[in-house]
Amino acid sequence: MSSKILGRENSLKEQIESSLARTGLNADETSIELSMRRTGLSFQRTRMSADRTLMSVIRTSLSLISFGFTIFQFFRALRETGSAGQTAVDAARNFGLSLIIVGVAMLFLGLGFHLSFMKALRSERKMMVEKGLVHGLLPYPVSLTMIVALLMLVIGLVALISIVARTGPFV
């Protein structure tokens, strides 16, 4: 081997020995500690990934709900001006309602999946903390994405009821 490579290896060994001396842990303890931290962070990454998935469900359901509501409002305005017949208005109302129903159902199912996934992830993390495999130092905060999804679900349901009952804030 060349002296340059041997010099790098010796430098790396010195850095490792210096780090071990600074922490007061031996090489095996250091490896375990780092592994526990990586596993704990992987739980956080998985939680954030679940939030991103829920955000995509929110985005898609919001598009469906708003597009359905817009179709309903547009044809209702045409009916009031006398530009569209009752058959076209009824067809547009039914199509708009079906888009809103699909959006609300998608949001409801997405929330259900998110809640069940997060419950399983929390129980897995709790089990690993109890066994000492992971540090339990980082708490799981309340998911703001889930709060937004719940608010969107309420708004979608109010819009749906408003159109079906032909009364309320959206008609």
What is the structure about, briefly put?
With 171 residues, this protein is mainly α.
Give the topology.
Layout: H1 3-23, H2 27-81, H3 86-130, H4 144-165
Please give the number of β-strands: 0
Describe the largest sheet: none
Morphology call: elongated
Stretches with pLDDT under 50, minimum 5 residues: none
Account of the protein in words:
This protein has 4 helices and no strands. It has helices at residues 3-23, 27-81, 86-130, 144-165. α2 (27-81) runs antiparallel to α3 (86-130) and α2 (27-81) packs parallel to α4. The N and C termini lie far apart (81 Å). The relative contact order is 0.12. The mean pLDDT is 79.
Brief descriptors of the model:
single chain, elongated, 171 residues, mainly alpha
